[in-house]
Every structure is written in C-alpha cells, then in structure tokens.
Task: inverse folding
C-alpha cells in the first residue's frame, strides 16, 4: 500500500495550474462540488418520485391492519382478476418466448430482402402508445371486426394484446447473443453426424437459454401490469375479463383507495418476485455453463 | 434444411406481420377512411389539439429531466461504485416492473390532498393531482430507467483509460466530459432518449389516474384518444391514434439509426 500511495503522490503535478474558480478551491474543487450536488440531487429525485410514493402505498395497504389487507386481496373479484392476469401473461410470454426465439433466429441467421423492415418493426410495440394498440385491436377483433372475429371480453383478446406489447422483449434479448455465437461448435456437431434438430437442442438452445429466460421474465413482468392495450379489448367484465390493473383502477376511482392499495401491493410483489426468479434462474444457468 | 429455414422465415413474417404490421396499417387506413379532406378537418379538433399541446409540454419537461438524471446516475454508478450506487442500480429498474395503474396510485397516495405531502404542498399552492406537475411526475416515473439502462453497460465496457489519459494531459473535467465521455455515449443516449420520449408521449394508465382526464385541462393526447373511443367517436380517436403512430414510426427510425451507429462504433473499437 505505501508504494501505491507514494506513486500517486509522485504523479501529482508539482506546479498547481492557474486557479480559475477560486471560490470553490480551483477547477478540481469545483468539479467535486458539482459531483456532490449531482449525487444528492439524483438521490432526492429517485426518493421523491419512486421510493417515497411506494412506501406510501405499502403504508396505506396495511394502515387498517393485516385483516383488512387480507380481506381486500382475497375478495373473489380480486382473486379472479389476479388469476386471469397471471394466466394471460403466462400464455403470452410463453408464446412470445418461442416466437421471439424464431424471430431472432430469422433476423440473425437468415438473409432476405426487407429484413431491415422486419428488424425495425419488431421495436414498434416499444414505440407505439399502448392506447393506440388497444383501440386498434378492439376495432380489428371486436364487434365491428372487418374479419368477423370477436375476441373481446375473453382471455384470448387479453392474451393477443399482451402478445403485441411483449413481442420485442425476447427478440431483443436473444438477438445479440445469437449474433455473438460462433458456428464452430455447431458445425463440429453437424460434421459428426448430428441432425439439425439435435444441434439446435444440444448446442444452440443451451447457449441462448439465459438470454431467453431474461427476456421472457421482462416480458412477464410487463405483461402482469399491462393496462392501456388490454382495457379496451377486455371489456372489463368483473370475474370474467377484468385484469388486475383494471380492477385496481376501478377501486381507486370509486373511493376504495385502501382496497386498491392492498391489491396493488399483491400485484407489485408478484411482478417483482417473477422478475427476480427469472433473473436468478438465468444467472444460475449462465454460471453452470461457465 | 433449406426448405425448413424457408418455412421458418414465412412463419415469422406472418406472425410479426399479423401482430404488429397489420394493426399499424389499420390505424392509418381507419384515419383516412373518409378521405384526406375529412382527415385534415379532424386534425383541427379543438379538444385533440389542446391535448396534443399538453402532451408536448409534458414531454418537454419530463424528457430532459430524465436524460440528465439518466446520464448523471449512470456515470455515478459506473465510475464511483459504492453500496449506495449498488442500491440505486437495483431500485432504478423498479418502474419497469410496476403496472402504470399502480404508478398512478402510489403518486396519488403520496401527493394527493389527503396523501402524505398533499396538505403541505397545497398550503404552498402546489397541486399535484389533476394538474400538470402530477402528469409530469407520472411520466418521469414510468420512463425513469430507460436512459441509464442503455448507458450503464456501455460505460462499463468502455472503462476510463481514455479519460485518465486526457486528465494526465491536462484536460479539465468539463473538457473530458464533452470530448470523451459524451462523445462515446452519444448514440446509446440517443437510443435511451427516443425510448423515453416514446414512453412519455404514449403513457396512458399512470396519467389517467393522476390527471383525472379532464377534457381541455388535463387530458393528454393518449387520454383524448381513449375518451373519443369511450364516447363512440371512433373516427376522431383514430385520427389521434394515427398521429401517435406516425410519431412512433419516426422514433423507430431514430432508434434504428442509433442502434446501427452504436454497433458500428462498437465494431470499430473491437
């Protein structure tokens, strides 16, 4: 340690540069003041906007005791909404895990005209407002559907809307990994007589698994809380087609803030737990592969 | 092998086309269904235009604040790691896992009249609920991590050798930031800014709760589209939707350019 200290001591310029900002003790001092001020501002910003409001939510949910929290969370309407949300989110993110993998594969391994358009359009759900997607899906597949398909008020409609919203997550997490994958192991396996399916199953897929899981986890977390794209096509029928966020909204706007906070805490914990679980498994797989 | 990859290509194109392409085309088809003249007349709708101006105002306040925060906090997390930055690194991603409705609700619980700070703020004449500050706060919340998530990995990968070299050669902190740091993270930041802008313009659930959706006062463009639909004024709704779809296509192009430039820079350095 002394050697290190000595070397930094020596590397300091012997002559002080001319002081421009005397007030803060030179440019270096000014930079330090700016840095400390910036750090405090960042912490304040995060606390005021995110952390304190979330604390207010938790406090409010339990403000009338555990019993009241439990009653609000286990209302039949609440249980039905939570179950519907989880099932639709699961269906949509599993479908998109497969479709996203296929899309990433086509984007990286295939070459054809118009590929750039496909690559760009995959990001559209990130850029298109959810309400635009919501009203469009409602008109496309609702009572006035030009295809005479009506999937409003059912889990199918909700799942389709969520599939749209979560499409980019898996594609964008798998694509870079697939790009960096070299063909060596795959071609070696193929030379040794492995069928294309076997090569994919034993070599390519395990390498992509962590990214695939991370993407699916992000999609799942997003899907569980989705509102704008779902609310139109779902028709919001209690017990039947009301998703959790929609149920929370109806509670919050009808003066039942306390119940709304309780269901919100359940949904929030579910989403965070899912996210943590997915990233844990994905890290475990990545570590097991070395 | 060739046939199977052909089948996969067609299946993927059909899936993405039906799920994403078709709705996009449909929005424009619906907006232009009564011809260009009607479309342009509908653009002059007073309620929609007021909503659009409000959305622009919100974006002009929320996006710069989040970009400043995102870049600053990324530099802090990567360059001065501590227990605090590790905590921030985790906490900053929370907004991505929260339902927009819950975001609106938590802000209401903290800042509404009967919330934690509501009465204190009201005494100062500052109202968060049903007004611009609340809408801005909700927009900031939903898009908080979008810049830093792009910038942090890049800064990590870059290291700070160039900056140290510049410092040794006598460059001041401002000059180092402008000529080296900012220049290397420009495209990643641009990507983050576009995502932030898209999210702020497009936010629906959180703003719905916080703003109260009062026409001509606190109604943003997304809320206006939803309201038009609820009032069976589908055509006007699709006109607004087409405008937002157009904006998202422009943002998509910027995203594409940013990703392309960032990859080129990356390949050049590698």
Result:
């Amino acid at each position: 340690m002394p050697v290190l200290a000595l070397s930094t001591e020596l590397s300091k310029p012997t002559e002080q540069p001319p002081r421009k900002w005397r007030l803060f003790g030179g440019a270096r001092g000014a930079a330090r003041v700016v840095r400390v001020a910036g750090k405090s501002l960042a912490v304040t910003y995060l606390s005021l906007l995110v952390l304190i409001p979330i604390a207010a939510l938790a406090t409010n949910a339990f403000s009338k005791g555990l019993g009241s929290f439990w009653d609000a969370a286990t209302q039949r309407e609440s249980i039905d909404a939570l179950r519907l949300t989880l099932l639709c989110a699961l269906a949509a993110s599993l479908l998109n895990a497969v479709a996203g993998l296929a899309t990433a594969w086509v984007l990286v391994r295939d070459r054809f005209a118009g590929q750039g358009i496909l690559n760009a359009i995959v990001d559209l759900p990130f850029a298109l407002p959810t309400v635009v997607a919501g009203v469009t899906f409602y008109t496309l597949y609702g009572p006035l559907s030009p295809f005479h398909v009506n999937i409003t008020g059912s889990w199918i409609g909700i799942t389709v809307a969520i599939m749209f919203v979560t499409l980019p997550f898996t594609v964008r997490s798998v694509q870079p990994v697939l790009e960096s994958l070299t063909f060596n192991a795959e071609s070696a396996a193929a030379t040794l007589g492995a069928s294309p399916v076997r090569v994919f199953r034993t070599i390519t897929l395990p390498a992509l698994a962590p990214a695939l899981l991370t993407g699916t986890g992000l999609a799942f977390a997003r899907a569980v809380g989705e509102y704008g794209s779902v609310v139109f096509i779902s028709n919001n029928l209690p017990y039947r087609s009301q998703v959790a966020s929609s149920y929370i909204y109806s509670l919050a706007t009808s003066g039942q803030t306390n119940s709304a906070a309780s269901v919100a805490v359940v949904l929030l914990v579910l989403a965070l737990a899912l996210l943590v679980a997915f990233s844990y498994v994905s890290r475990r797989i990545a570590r097991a592969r070395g | 092998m060739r046939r199977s990859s052909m089948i996969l290509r067609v299946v993927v194109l059909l899936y993405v086309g039906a799920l994403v392409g078709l709705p996009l085309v449909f929005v424009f088809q619906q907006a232009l269904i009564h011809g260009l003249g009607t479309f342009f007349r509908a653009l002059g709708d007073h309620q929609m235009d007021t909503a659009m101006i409000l959305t622009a105002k919100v974006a002009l306040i929320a996006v710069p604040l989040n970009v400043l925060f995102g870049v600053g906090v990324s530099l802090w997390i990567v360059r001065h790691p501590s227990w605090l930055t590790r905590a921030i690194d985790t906490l900053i991603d929370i907004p991505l896992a929260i339902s927009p409705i819950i975001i609106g609700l938590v802000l209401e619980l903290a800042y509404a009249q009967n919330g934690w700070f509501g009465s204190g703020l009201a005494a100062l004449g500052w109202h968060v609920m049903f007004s611009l500050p609340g809408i801005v706060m909700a927009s900031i919340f939903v898009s908080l991590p979008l810049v830093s998530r792009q910038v942090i990995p890049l800064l990590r990968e870059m290291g700070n050798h160039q900056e140290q070299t510049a410092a040794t050669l006598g460059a001041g902190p401002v000059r180092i930031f402008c000529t080296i740091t900012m220049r290397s993270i420009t495209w990643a930041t641009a990507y983050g800014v576009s995502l932030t802008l898209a999210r702020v313009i497009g936010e629906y659930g959180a703003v719905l709760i916080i703003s109260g959706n009062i026409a001509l006062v606190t109604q943003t463009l997304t809320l206006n589209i939803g309201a038009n639909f609820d009032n069976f004024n589908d055509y006007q709704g699709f006109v607004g939707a087409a405008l937002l779809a157009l904006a998202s296509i422009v943002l998509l192009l910027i995203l594409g350019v940013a990703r392309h430039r960032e990859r080129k820079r990356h390949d050049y350095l590698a």
